[in-house]
Every structure is written in structure tokens, then in C-alpha cells.
Design brief:
With 310 residues, the chain is of the alpha/beta class. 43% of the residues lie in helices and 16% in strands. The protein has a domain of 174 residues: Alpha-Beta Barrel (TIM Barrel). It has an 8-stranded parallel beta barrel with strand order 3-4-5-8-9-10-11-12, surrounded by 4 helices. The radius of gyration is 19 Å and the shape is globular.
């Protein structure tokens, strides 16, 4: 296996947290991208070759029906025999309607101890791993009892089921609510951020990350592909600006300019790339190593918010 890991740096998520690669691969679309676990296993080896060691997944991912990706990923991981070379992040708490969860009448969220434990046990089993590197609470459960959720996460660490815990899509107040009842550090908040989704730069999420000393994980840095394929005037305009910036900076194209945009914010969020294509991952590595300069960055923001009033 070629060793060119030097091209991607490592990032410590929190002073008492794990170290990740500075690009993460997300498995959400994997069943549409790979025809077999063997093909996905080859892709996982390719990721390691590139220095991408951190994998993101969730109990709920699956296509056409939710709750199947972890099994697919676990099968591929087993085929590589390289679990110890990866950091594996999975999530719990989203309840979706699926033939695999006939008890769910509607989509909802559940951070009770019973559900967190059931979900984590299922995830470890499907992924074929003894422990996760990080377990995240996936989306806010507005009925969360913070003492119950915090106590459960601490217990999962004590039991060796996960090394670290974190949250996803949490507002600053929700983050602080959980943190007040948790002994372990919240090592990340995984949030959406891209040139067409600027919320965390203005709603306190990135400020909180910097104050509290954790590194965010960034989902859909190119808008889940919409930034590249969307044809509404708003997306068209942002894509045109990103294309010009890419040309000026020697980046492959607007998708890469979007990644370089995301990487520029001082919260130092780590982009999770959802592509299943080798060439898009290698171009993303180049992009994350070439964050935009201040004026290019503001040009992107201005394309969506001309008065910079977010
Ligand atoms: N915490 C949460 O609530 C949450 C929510 C959503 C996602 N996530 C995580 O974040 C990860 C990444 O999300 P994402 O997949 O939406 O990220 P993304 O990287 O913004 O989008 C990936 C999609 O864009 C397409 N794409 C990439 N480059 C393209 C290009 N140049 N032209 C056209 N299409 C292009 C990819 O297709 P190809 O495969 O053909 O390249 C893929 O379908 C997920 O896998 C998941 O792990 C977390």
C-alpha cells in the first residue's frame, strides 16, 4: 500500500479527544455508490492510501430503506481486516419509518437511555466492531432528559463501547444543556456548512466550538451535490462565483472551491466528503490544503448575503 499520508494532516478534535484525518469520508450514500461490499472494501483501502482514516456513518443511513448502511460498511470493513487503521464515528437517536423499524409510525427523535443503548449495540454489531471511536447524538430530541442522556453517554464510555462522545446539529444552548450533565467532553458538533448553508458562522455554533475547544465536523460541504447540479438561480450564481475562485486558485472546480471555503473558517471544521469517486476525493485533499484567502471567502458569502447580514 502506498504511503502518501503526508498530504493530509491530522487534527485533534478536543484536548481530551481523538485525532482525525483532516478530511473525513461519509458513508451515507454508499449503497448507491458501490455495487458490493468488496467494491466498498477497495474504496476503503484507497482512502487509507490517501491518509483519510476517519469514517462517518449513522444507524439510520440506508437506501432504499433506512438502517442498512452500517451492515454494508461493516461487511466491507471486515473484508479489509483494517478496522484498527480507521476512526469510526456513528450516530444514534433518529427514528425513521422503515421495514427495519416497524414500530416507527412517524419520523421522530429519541435520546432515552433505552434507545441510545439499543442503537449503539446494534451499530457495533452491524459494523462488526467492539467499540466506536465516537458516538454522536444525531439530531436534537426536544424531549431529551439531559441527565438521562448525559449519564448514558458517560456509561457507554465506561463500558468501553465508545471512546468518545459528541453531538450533531446541536444549537449552542442545547450543547450547553447536555454538557452540564455529562462528565466526558463533547468532542465535536457535526453540522451542515457550505456556501449555500452558512448558518453556523452566524448562529453561535462555530463561536461555541472555539470557546469550548472542540473541532466541528462539517456535513454536506458541497450541499449534497446540489451546489454542482442545482439549476435554481441562487445556486447557479454561487456556483459561478466558486468557478471563478477555483480558476484563480488552481483548484479543480467549484466543488473544490466550496471545500476550500469551508476549510477557511477559524473553527477549523473538518469536511465530510460524501463522494464515492476516487478523483473527487483526491481533488478534495488538494482543496482542504488550500483554504481560500479572506477576500475570496467573503466573495462567496457576498454571493448569497450581499450585505453580509446573515
Ligand atoms: N449529521 C447529519 O445530520 C448529517 C446529514 C447529512 C450527511 N451527513 C454526513 O456527511 C456526509 C457527507 O454528506 P453529503 O454526501 O451530503 O456530502 P457532499 O460531499 O456535499 O455531497 C456528496 C454528493 O455530491 C455528489 N458530488 C460530489 N462532487 C460532485 C461534482 N463535482 N459534481 C456533481 N456531483 C458531485 C456526490 O456524487 P458522487 O458520489 O457521484 O461523487 C454525492 O452524491 C454523509 O455521508 C454523512 O456521513 C451527516
Amino acid at each position: 500500500m502506498a504511503d502518501n499520508t503526508g498530504s493530509l494532516s491530522r487534527v485533534k478534535l478536543h484536548k481530551n479527544g481523538p485525532e482525525f484525518s483532516s478530511l473525513i469520508w461519509g458513508s451515507m450514500r454508499s449503497e448507491e455508490q458501490f455495487t458490493s461490499a468488496a467494491e466498498l472494501a477497495d474504496f476503503l483501502r484507497f482512502l487509507l492510501d490517501q491518509g483519510i482514516t476517519t469514517l462517518d456513518t449513522a444507524n439510520t443511513y440506508g437506501s432504499p430503506h433506512p438502517y442498512t448502511v452500517e451492515e454494508f460498511l461493516g461487511d466491507a470493513l471486515r473484508q479489509t481486516g483494517l478496522r484498527d487503521r480507521f476512526e469510526i464515528v456513528t450516530k444514534c437517536g433518529i427514528q425513521r419509518v422503515s421495514p427495519h423499524r416497524t414500530e416507527n409510525r412517524i419520523r421522530h427523535f429519541d435520546f432515552t437511555e433505552a434507545e441510545i443503548r439499543r442503537s449503539v449495540d446494534r451499530s457495533l454489531n452491524k459494523l462488526g466492531i467492539d467499540y466506536a471511536d465516537v458516538i454522536l447524538l444525531h439530531r436534537p430530541d426536544y424531549l431529551m432528559d439531559p441527565t438521562e442522556a448525559g449519564g448514558t453517554l458517560d456509561a457507554l464510555i465506561a463500558e468501553g463501547k465508545t471512546r468518545y462522545v459528541g453531538v450533531s446539529n446541536f444549537s449552542p444552548s442545547r450543547y450547553h444543556l447536555l454538557a452540564s450533565k455529562l462528565n466526558a467532553p463533547i468532542v465535536t458538533n457535526q453540522v451542515e456548512f457550505s456556501p449555500i448553508h452558512l448558518d453556523p458562522i452566524a448562529n453561535g455554533v462555530f463561536d461555541t466550538a472555539m470557546i469550548e475547544g472542540h473541532v466541528p465536523m462539517i456535513w454536506s460541504p458541497i450541499g449534497g451535490g446540489r451546489l454542482m447540479t442545482g439549476d435554481d438561480p441562487y445556486v447557479f450564481k454561487v456556483r459561478a462565483v466558486l468557478s471563478e475562485i477555483a480558476a484563480r486558485n488552481g483548484l479543480a472546480g467549484p466543488a473544490e472551491a466550496a471545500i476550500a471555503f469551508v476549510a477557511r473558517h477559524p473553527a477549523k471544521g473538518i469536511p465530510i466528503i460524501g463522494s464515492g469517486k476516487h478523483e473527487r476525493l483526491t481533488a478534495a485533499i488538494e482543496a482542504v490544503n488550500k483554504p481560500l484567502d479572506r477576500q475570496d471567502w467573503y466573495e462567496v458569502v457576498t454571493a448569497t448575503s450581499p450585505m453580509l447580514e446573515l
